[in-house]
Each structure stands twice: as C-alpha cells, then as structure tokens.
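Dig into what follows:

_____
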Amino acid sequence: MARCYPSGGNDLGKESKELTRAETESIAMPQSLSLVIIHVIFSTKERRPFLDAGTRLQLHAYLATIARNAGCEAYRVGGVEDHVHLAIRLSRTITIAGLVETIKTSSSKWLKTLSPELPLFSWQRGYGCFSVDPSEVDELNEYIDDQVNHHRTRTFQEEFRMFLKKYGVEYDEAYVWD
C-alpha cells in the first residue's frame, strides 16, 4: 500500500490515508511526456560569411546529427553564409542552453577541421530560441528551406530583429550582436 498525505504534504500530527494499489495507479504518472518545439537561430561571429554552399550542406547534416544524438528530433536545419536556423523537438531530458552549447561547441570544432580556411571559425556567443506551436512546424520548415531567397533582400540582423518582434522579446541593440 502507498501512503498518501493530506493536502499540503505530510502535515505532522495529522492522520494519513492508506491507498489501495488501484487508487495509486490512477494517480501515478509513470512517464514524463513533452512536446516542446523550438526555433534556434545563431550566426557566425561578426556575421562573417564562412559558410559556402558546400560547407552548409555538410554542416546542416552535422547539426541535425548532434541534435539527434542529444535525444532531440531535428525537423529542419538550414541557413546561409553567416547563420543557421534549426527547428527542433526538444528532448524532455535536456535544457535549451545545454543543447545549444553542445551544438555550437561540437560544430565549431568540427568546422575547423573541414577546411584550411576555417581554423579561425567561431559562432557568435549568443543565440535566439523561440517556442513554436506544433501547428506551425510546416510553416517554419518552409521558412528555413527558403533562407537563400529571404536573404536576397534581408540581412541576418534584419531577420533576427523581425523574430524578436514577432515573439515579443525585448532586447537592447547594444548587446545583441558580437
């Protein structure tokens, strides 16, 4: 038999009630479930155009693999010469900050070995991360797929400010860029 305490926890001096197994199973939660979808955006340091088309193809696959290895599902990875976007279903066992740190650290080390032109490569220090409604995942995937077209008329900074505004994130321009 499981012990169940009165509301408010185990109030000393108060009687507790013994529950039957059936009662315990009806209130127990045997597993943790979640559906947290995030849109992560970060750029190269100083938005330098390190990521040519060939490098991007390899990088995007590598970023998706890092996310999967962290227990997440990468719905889409894309970007242009100076930044990346990731649409990810977050694992219930990892924090956003931990995932982004793993993605950026691992990919930065990997990129430096890819080409003699990339030994000075690094990502910007910060990132943007926004929650996404499951009903909007297809729209986000299409947006990520169409990055090259978006950036014919819009810089990374303009795009990032657009997302900050869309999601209602307050920011100080002096601290957004590095």
Notes: Residues 1-30 form one domain.
